[in-house]
Specification:
By secondary structure, this protein is α+β, with helices and mostly antiparallel strands. The chain contains 38 helices and 9 strands. Among the domains are: 4-114, Roll (PH-domain like), CATH 2.30.29; 139-276, no CATH class. Helix 28 (583-597) runs parallel beside helix 30 (623-639).
Length: 818
Amino acid sequence: MTDTRRRVKVYTLNEDRQWDDRGTGHVSSAYVERLKGMSLLVRAESDGSLLLESKINPNTAYQKQQDTLIVWSEAENYDLALSFQEKAGCDEIWEKICQVQGKDPSVDITQELIDESEEERFDDMSSPGLELPPCELSRLEEVAELVASSLPSPLRREKLALALENEGYIRKLLELFRVCEDLENREGLHHLYDIIKGIFLLNRTALFEVMFSEECIMDVIGCLEFDPSLPQPRRHREFLTTTARFKEVIPISDPELRQKIHQTYRVQYIQDMVLPTPSVFEENMLSTLHSFIFFNKVEIVGMLQDDEKFLTELFAQLTDEATDDDKRHELVNFLKEFCAFSQTLQPQNRDAFFKTLSNMGILQALEVILGMDDVQVRGAATDIFSYLVEYNPSMVREFVMQESQQNDDDILLINLIIEHMICDTDPELGGAVQLMGLLRTLVDPENMLATANKTEKTEFLSFFYKHCMHVLSAPLLANTTEEKPSKDDFQTCQLLALIVELLTFCVEHHTYHIKNYIINKDILRRVLVLTASQHAFLALCALRFMRKIIGLKDEFYNRYIMRNFLFEPVVKAFLNNGSRYNLINSAIIEMFEYVRVEDVKSLTAHIIENYWKGLEDVDYVQTFKGLKLRYEQQRERQDNPKLDSMRSILRNHRFRRDARTLEDEEEMWFNTDEEDLEDGEAVVPPSDKMKNDEDLMDPISKFMERKKLKDSEEKEVLTGKASLSGRQSPSFKLSFSSSPKASLSSPPTASLHPGSPGSPSSPGTGARSSPPSAAVTTKGGLVGLVDYPDDDEEDEDEEDADSKEESPPLSKKSKLSS
């Protein structure tokens, strides 16, 4: 059956004792072969999928609440509820359940699980029912003892609840309460407190509906004022009738809605303020009370949401300039509470709720309210705005982009939020922290949508950097015009720290937008002024900002840092910190350590060439000496490019065995005379020997030795002492690697390709021709390398690329070292 009578929502109780909406569908009961019994089936109204398939277990306790709810537990921690649109549908399904369990449909609970001994169970079942004493003043103590003794036993609780319900006993007890209060009978009032508290712990919806009715609820609260453990009674009724007043900011025409609002407020008050905090053993006994409040709130939000006249009047008065301040304050507080109630809704219902508010113009109303002078009204408006941003940031972004086409930057909604953040009068900036969190959510690309037609990220970030970023950074720019912050009081520093944190977030998550802004506005220089602040937390914020930029390893940022000497304030802060071992000291050292470990060559050279004198005496960490060593290695490679050349040759012969290399070697084989091979002349052994030397000797120490022996080796080579052995072939070239000036047979183009195997010569070395020779000489630990024209021509570009991986081009290095 698919009519509205059987239309239901399926709820499950989560770990936080909150009801989760599992969907809307139509319920039916049928025999399910797989489950071997009659079962409840709920099929989704959207696609017909099965939302619920639950066998009606003869031993499961089902409860009917508020005429339209059926609640039960399928496992120890798995509670289910069906919320019916109509009472008739609930009654039909309840009859089916009672029919399976053999119960009278007039009961509101079929049974409860029994965990007592067989003897107690037999005694309880053998008794026909629980007989209550007459409701008289002299028998109150007896009633209180009966209630207390029934609570531990599920069956006795069931019988007590039925007796209380059938005999109208609660109303009689409340009449006795009025008599006791008139007579000031304190003993009787104490007994009534225990009785009413015990009735709450029975956890029965039918009893709650009697107790929370309009004529009974205040007397129930009165009974709970007289706690025997307190010397004086509480004054809850006085608070509810005189202090807590119901303000009907917009007239509510529906009397049922008005009564539901009153009831929910009072029941919530009973739960939060009147009832004592439940013990561990009593906590689950009030689950029905939690459910009662929850479903009341859902019902209130639904009824208000459906009343278009009410919401239209609400937003009209909110935005009307003629509305006085007190009235507007009440309207905003109502809207805030309305949004708070919506948090009880499930995601799909909440989505419809906020869509309704959006269609009514809630964002336009907030824009008007945030422009007002009343601090309390603005605070409430901020809370409403936070509900909207946290639930649907895309809706807010779409609104502000549309309004930017019509309004000036000063009155844009986001700019109003930024101004309130900047102007927060709270010394601890509580409101500013909240607003900064909302801004972060709005500019976070992770929650931005991308569709086929447009990309929200691109559009919104372009809008934000064009219309809003200058407002956000204004306090930072105004306070950093000198070498030290203009204002260094705590509140200003707190605000600047929030702004820098958001900018750091932008550096991490945005790309070219923030890069262009930082470089064009010189933002990093301004932020680093804050390292001179007396407040360490602000200095650390500035260091985090720079560290995030360096961590990107972006050469645009690196050139910007070097061009403007932006390590200077960092080094100055490090030296001013002295020998103190604190967060600033660690943060700065970590920044330099990152440059060293990641081998950021341009920054390494910049730091050593400009700030080494100030850092060379720091020896309690090896970071700066390590940076110096990195720098010297770079210079060494620039002065001795043969190191890169040798590494690329080694890498080529040891690791690269692709098809092209094999073809080259075959070509070489067929180009070699048989006589060469007969003489036992090895084609590649020199590289093997060089391999062993490279493995045994560190390249740095090897070149240091060469440097010391430079003069003597030059003389030996130049005077022709180097012996040449083996037969020469026109197809071979000879190349020495003794010193930068000892390249005897490099081709004229060798200086253009310092990384090619046949030309390990340094820039500026004149390449002199000599008769081609196939011999290799090793003298003073130096190795001559044999290579071939075929390899040279084909692999020249590839090996040049390999050498570039080791270090930047020489022209770039020479610029850095100059």
